[in-house]
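Now for one record.
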Amino acid sequence: MTVTSDMLRACPADLGAADRAALADCIDRCLDCVQACTACADACLAEDTVGELRACIRACLDCADICDATARILSRRTGHGADVALDVLAACAVACEACAGQCARHAGCHEHCAVCAEACRRCAEACRTLLETLS
């Protein structure tokens, strides 16, 4: 069990059609991705080839921001607008795939990019899974 799962279970609000396990997994994957992308952007800044990593840094920072927003929106279930959640989940999956693609270009040279790309892929998958359960 994670804190996310515990909080969803303890919440008295009706979660509607949401699969609690898929919801908790998506929130946790988003938060993991925030950490990975933030740390990867910082690690890229420390590389000697930082000039070649600008697009990767930008993708990581954009992805971290949208994953953070997605986790927060999904965590607020009281009076929640389903349309907003669906749109945010779709956008998060797109941002994660874009970031994974950027990081994959450098994964052979920079381990932090390999780790980040994998976190992004897992997050995109969790977003798509939750989208399926909510649609």
